[in-house]
Amino acid sequence: MTSPVLRSALPSRVHHLQPAALTVLAVALLAGLPELLGDRGRLAAVLVLQLGLVLTWVVVTGIQGFAGSLAVGAAAAVAADLVLVLPEHPDLGDLLLVLGMGFLAAVVQQMFRRPREELVASLAGSALLLTAVAALGALLLLGRTPEGHDRALVALLAVGAALLVGHLVDLVLPRPYLATGVPRGLLGLVLSVVAGALVAYLGRDVGGTAGALPALVLGAALAGVTAMVALVASYVVVEATADDGPSDPSVSPWAVSVVQAVLPFAACAPVALALQMVL
Fold it and tell me: Quick check: bond before 115 cis, omega within 30?
């Protein structure tokens, strides 16, 4: 016996064009506010993305205990930013404390609600949310120095280009399908990786990357992570908006679009920081 294939109630146009537009907005925030306000602008931009992801993730995934989940996610976002901003010499490892305390808070919040329906699914969704908002904080370290700001700009543009190309290609030709019922194709994945590598190559002088090959590796790695997480986000959207599935098909298209636009940046932030240390 095979499981039924979920079909999203969202038109393909909405599935791809709205996240593409929000991707442009996210890149503009992350690149523009630091230019205008320095480190405070970077903090503001990251916090906007974190809180936006917290709200929409709880809505889209249907985590039980709505108010409590929002409070835990928002507190984790603020705490993650503070441990990376307040110390004179911050370390990414400091986020482990935030993740540990955040998960404990999520467990307590889920155990205290009544009735405890979908407890495992809600805990899993909370754990992934905590990881994502903490990972977004890595952008604060990526752009803290003048050289880091330039590298952060190139990394953001590479991720943004990969997302845009993937959505636009999959809007026109989502073939061959990477997952049944999800409008994402192999061609879009490949071209998004090419786009990310090309952006990093063209921006190698701005980003301070030593040589063409390291720039291509940086762009391809970030774009590859972007493409894979974008596929996962699309799968989440299909399940959340399925017209014949267990999820609520009335979820706002803008809410799912925020998840599609922000989740790849969360996955790429620690990767970009690690590659900055190596390349």
Answer: yes
